[in-house]
Structure formats: C-alpha cells, structure tokens
## 1
Amino acid sequence: DTGVSQDPRHKITKRGQNVTFRCDPISEHNRLYWYRQTLGQGPEFLTYFQNEAQLEKSRLLSDRFSAERPKGSFSTLEIQRTEQGDSAMYLCASSLAGTGPYEQYFGPGTRLTVT
Amino acid sequence: AQSVAQPEDQVNVAEGNPLTVKCTYSVSGNPYLFWYVQYPNRGLQFLLKYITGDNLVKGSYGFEAEFNKSQTSFHLKKPSALVSDSALYFCAVRDIEGGATNKLIFGTGTLLAVQP
C-alpha cells in the first residue's frame, strides 16, 4: 500500500495560465475527494467521485475548475485561467465505499502559487 | 448548518505533560467525528474517529479522544506529550446533510507546540 499520491507537489504559474493536478488514490478505494486548503484554514471540500462518477461539486468549484476520474482510478483537477486567489494547497483523499463512514486518507497535496 | 469549532489557535505544553486539544461540533443527528494531524508541507494523517459506542476512542501514536454528547465536544488528548507531537491538528465532522458523499467539514486547526 503506497498511500495516496499527488503530482506535482509544487506548481508555480502565472495568472491566466491553465494547470492540471493528478491524484492516484489507494488502489482499492473507490471514493475520491478533492479539497482546497488556504493558509490558516482547514481543508474545504471541492468535489467527490465514486468510481468514475462525479457525484457532488461544491459551490467553491467555479466554472474554471474541472475534475475527472475517467476510469475510476486516478483523478485530475484542472484550473483554467488561474487567478491569484487560486493559490492554495490542493489535497486529494480517498476512502472505501460501503455502509460505514470510512475515514479518508489524504495525499501530500499540491501547493499552487499563482503569480 | 453543520460545523466544528476549534477554539484555540495554539496550545503550548511541556514535554511529558498531558495535552488536550479542544473541538466542539454542531450537527443534526448523530455525529461522525474525526481527528487528523498535519505536519509542515504534508497532507493530513488520520488519527482516530468516533462513530458510536464507547465515548473514549483510542487512536494512533497514543492519542485518544473523548466524545461528550451533552457538551457537543470531541476533545483530543494524550497522557504524555512528545516534542514530535508538535503539528497542526484538525477536527472534522462528516457532512450528513449533503447526501451520501461522506465529505468532511473541518475546523480551522489548532497548532500544538510541545516544548522540550
């Protein structure tokens, strides 16, 4: 079990550019979550997949954000036309589906800096 | 709306002393509560959870948490703090109003500083 991995760990981009992040969940986990964390705050939910279906999106997820999980395994989060307010840590988490409220396991995060 | 509150931005404790990191919650229905720890430039690590049963929950690295329904609290505790426990601690509650996503609502975090 290698845990949840995210790539890249750090990304610096200029305002207006597009960026894409990747998340590889724990292999047997079919639930995948994206959160955003800004300095001094706890993570805030962005979106959720069960297998390949995107079942919920937060109002925080503007039209510039899109997420996919094409084969129910890894996921990508793309931000188009980045703004300085997008600077944050983007966290991916995965968990088992089922009847229990299973804990989520987090990756190391991708820190985005928009200049 | 569901929420969690961590009233202390920072907790300072001497190594070897007991520590408590406070969390209160506001949910409709039975809460599912979690504690996570975050080290610098790292993701969150799961420590423990309360779903049902015993009010005292034991977790990783010697941490435990006490669920108190009447006070709507879920405080994190450890009998003897280590310098290596110094980190940012987050309390979270499962969002049960948003369908079956199991997404978590986090507090703002408490920085634990353990002095040698």
## 2
Amino acid sequence: GAVVSQHPSWVICKSGTSVKIECRSLDFQATTMFWYRQFPKQSLMLMATSNEGSKATYEQGVEKDKFLINHASLTLSTLTVTSAHPEDSSFYICSGQGLYEQYFGPGTRLTVT
Amino acid sequence: SQQGEEDPQALSIQEGENATMNCSYKTSINNLQWYRQNSGRGLVHLILIRSNEREKHSGRLRVTLDTSKKSSSLLITASRAADTASYFCATDLNNTDKLIFGTGTRLQVFP
C-alpha cells in the first residue's frame, strides 16, 4: 500500500505555544488529506478535510483558527495547533486519499504541559 | 453523532480461539472498512466490503455486512497473541471520501 509519513512522531510543548505537524504522502499524490484526533482509548474523530490549493473544511465543533491547516502541495499537508493548551494533548493522525482508500500516517502524539 | 458503535468494547481470549467484533452504523453507505491499531500506532487497513457484498474473506479474517440492519461483523479465526490490538470499523459519509469510525473493540489475545 501507499505510504504516509508524519513528523514529528511525538512532541511536547508548553501551554500557549504553537506546534506544527507535517503529513506527507511519500509515493503518491494526495489531492485530499484528512486530519483526525484520537484521545486515549477512544476512536478517531475527523477534524478537517485538507484540499490541495484550497481552504480546509472543518468538522462541526473544530475551531479553524486554532487548528490551522495548509495543503500547499500534492504531497504535504500541515496542521498547526496554535496557542496550545493541555486539553489539546492528543494523538493526531493524518491520511491521504488514494484512488480507492485512505492511507494513514503513523500519528503524532502531542503533549501540552 | 454519526459515529458508529462497536461491541464488545473489550474482548479477551486465548490464542487459538476465534474473536468476533460487531459494528453498527447509522447512515447508508457505499462501503465499510475494518482497521487495526496497535497501541499508540497508526492504522492498518484490513479489509473493505462494498454495500453490495454480504461476505468477504482475507486470510484469517471474515467480514460480513448486513445493510438492512446497518451492521457488520469481523471474525478473526485461530487468533494469535500478535492480533492483540484495537479494531475499528469505518464507513464513508454521504458519498464523500470522509470516514466515520466506530467506537472500537480492544482485543487482547493471551498466549
């Protein structure tokens, strides 16, 4: 299957700072990428859909000014958590839409202290 | 919430036994997929079943789909300790590429 990478795999930041997470499709072009958040022992919740060259669309309840998404190329989408707070601590997973299915990255664990 | 539900939430079995997980969803779908997630890791795609299919096999995995009941089941036969993971079903949303994940089943297989 196609490969999606995420960087960093884990990050610790102080409350009030911003953190950027990168999602790359390594061997395919992903016009559409998705960002999910997963709290411990819970399921994945879709946060937003990232479309190359256009604004992301956010799911209900997700603050677009807090979670900035940029999809500047067919292989890279970034999620920036701005003014992070401890409640933003979570596992963030991205995926790239392939021809028939989504290919998921390995996730980024964010801890805000 | 449009999130699907899975049961059981947790399942513990011995190696060699079969494990069955069930998924119920709320909207009409084009397909349903099952994923595995090892603790703290990303998702591994297991199998996709289309809405016009009733059963599908892949190795030790057997998936059924009943669109009239909006439900699916995943059967893992002859389980192994390496099957220990969380398993999620996911459905497409309103003919989009978006996926809605079920609540998940945590499977523990004891050697």
